[in-house]
Amino acid sequence: MTKGDIINIVAEGTGLTKLETSAVVDGFLATIGYALQTKDSVTIRGFGSFRTVHRNERVSRNPKTGKEMHVPDRIAPVFKASTDLKKLVNKEQSIE
Question: For residue 94, what pLDDT is reported?
Answer without folding.
Answer: 64
